[in-house]
Specification:
Elements lengths: L5 E3 L1 H16 L1 H12 L8 H25 L1 E3 L13 E6 L2 E8 L10 E3 L3 H6 L7 E4 L2 E8 L1
Helix pairs in contact: 1-3, 2-3
Length: about 150
């Protein structure tokens, strides 16, 4: 099976590594919850046991997911940006409304934090464009005011 490389910023990689450490550090506490819940008796009607096992499954699943992401990560290099590309901070004028986005891979995307995926509609529209360039997006004129 061919693995797809996953684009990450240095900050995104660091955040994933920290999350992984916390999840691994939390394993003993989850195991303790399971052991305690087991001592309550009949497991078929033991809500504490079911809850602890579910917590364990979710944590282990996320650990595997993060490990896979980090194994296939391709670090986005910063530097002078003359065109919108991964890692670029793009300041836009969207019909009198100024917004600032960081173009990231889909793994790091979080629009509430101003991080948009290069695979999102606006991300795709921005890729390769230069500062000062205008284009139409969803019926609005968008102008790239600045690239960092």
């Amino acid at each position: 099976m061919i693995k797809k490389s996953i684009s990450l910023t240095a900050e995104g990689k660091k955040e994933l590594e920290e999350e992984l450490k916390e999840l691994i550090k939390g394993r003993p506490a989850i195991a303790e919850k399971i052991a305690t819940a087991r001592s309550f008796g009949d497991l078929s009607e033991n809500e504490e046991y079911s809850s602890a096992r579910n917590e364990q499954k979710m944590a282990e699943s996320r650990i595997l997911e993060i490990q896979e992401i980090l194994k296939n990560a391709k670090l986005i290099r910063g530097g002078k940006k003359d065109k919108a590309d991964l890692g670029a901070i793009v300041k836009l004028d969207m019909g009198g409304n100024e917004v600032e986005y960081t173009l990231v891979g889909p793994t790091e995307a979080n629009p509430l934090e101003g991080k948009i995926s290069n695979e999102s509609p606006i991300g795709k529209a921005l890729l390769g464009r230069k500062a000062g360039e205008s284009f139409e997006f969803n019926g609005r004129t968008v102008k790239i005011k600045e690239l960092k």
